[in-house]
Amino acid sequence: RWQKIFMFPLWSKMAVFWNKMFLTIIVLLIVLFLDAVREVRKYSSVHVNEKAANVNSSAFDHIQMKLFRSQRNLYLSGFSLFLWLVLRRTVTLLTQLAKEMASHAALETQVNDATEAAKKYMAENKRLQEALSGLSGKGDGKKKETADATEEKLKEEVEQLKAELQKTSNAFHKAKTEVAAVRKQSEGLRREYDNLMKEYEQLQQSLNKAEDKKDL
């Protein structure tokens, strides 16, 4: 189902501009984050100076409101930047996992084909051996030599098929191990993403409570 979804022509068109769009959003988030840091430092110093100067309450509340909004923007831009990087990493891991699964399926098919071919040649070799064992001792020597040469050729082909089967089996196990490693890494990243989302929700709730108290 997911393969059918990701095979839409729309995604192939967007993939051309995906890296540019990603870098553009990263630059934008970095600019917003640096601007929020500058605003926090600016209003923090003004907040301390105004508090020490004992100015009227309306001006002090206005500065405090500006400081709160700049801190909120700092948290939002910082978490957005971090979560966007996590999303990028998640997409990369999912892509690698899909490729490994596809190669895993191809290797499995190749192993099955090689196994069937090896069984076929072994059965044919066995049949020829039985036919050769049934020949009488008075048979023609030329026919025996031809049968021996055929038998040797079949043995060589069986050995080659066994070697290819072993090679394919090793590649299959290697791909299976890589798929398991990528899947484990993807699950760890997903758990980390869930924890970050929970922390982000808690921080957002605390900011909302602080803003409600400020409005009161």
TrEMBL record:
<comment type="similarity">
    <text>Belongs to the BCAP29/BCAP31 family.</text>
</comment>
<keyword id="KW-0813">Transport</keyword>
<keyword id="KW-0931">ER-Golgi transport</keyword>
<dbReference type="GO" id="GO:0006888">
    <property type="term" value="P:endoplasmic reticulum to Golgi vesicle-mediated transport"/>
</dbReference>
<dbReference type="InterPro" id="IPR008417">
    <property type="entry name" value="BAP29/BAP31"/>
</dbReference>
<feature type="region of interest" description="Disordered">
    <location>
        <begin position="132"/>
        <end position="155"/>
    </location>
</feature>
<keyword id="KW-0653">Protein transport</keyword>
<feature type="compositionally biased region" description="Basic and acidic residues">
    <location>
        <begin position="139"/>
        <end position="155"/>
    </location>
</feature>
<dbReference type="InterPro" id="IPR040463">
    <property type="entry name" value="BAP29/BAP31_N"/>
</dbReference>
<protein>
    <recommendedName>
        <fullName>Endoplasmic reticulum transmembrane protein</fullName>
    </recommendedName>
</protein>
<dbReference type="GO" id="GO:0006915">
    <property type="term" value="P:apoptotic process"/>
</dbReference>
<dbReference type="GO" id="GO:0006886">
    <property type="term" value="P:intracellular protein transport"/>
</dbReference>
<keyword id="KW-1133">Transmembrane helix</keyword>
<dbReference type="Pfam" id="PF18035">
    <property type="entry name" value="Bap31_Bap29_C"/>
</dbReference>
<dbReference type="InterPro" id="IPR041672">
    <property type="entry name" value="Bap31/Bap29_C"/>
</dbReference>
<keyword id="KW-0472">Membrane</keyword>
<keyword id="KW-0175">Coiled coil</keyword>
<feature type="domain" description="Bap31/Bap29 cytoplasmic coiled-coil">
    <location>
        <begin position="156"/>
        <end position="215"/>
    </location>
</feature>
<feature type="transmembrane region" description="Helical">
    <location>
        <begin position="74"/>
        <end position="91"/>
    </location>
</feature>
<keyword id="KW-0812">Transmembrane</keyword>
<feature type="domain" description="BAP29/BAP31 transmembrane">
    <location>
        <begin position="1"/>
        <end position="106"/>
    </location>
</feature>
<comment type="function">
    <text>May play a role in anterograde transport of membrane proteins from the endoplasmic reticulum to the Golgi.</text>
</comment>
<keyword id="KW-0256">Endoplasmic reticulum</keyword>
<keyword id="KW-0053">Apoptosis</keyword>
<dbReference type="GO" id="GO:0070973">
    <property type="term" value="P:protein localization to endoplasmic reticulum exit site"/>
</dbReference>
<dbReference type="GO" id="GO:0005789">
    <property type="term" value="C:endoplasmic reticulum membrane"/>
</dbReference>
<dbReference type="Pfam" id="PF05529">
    <property type="entry name" value="Bap31"/>
</dbReference>
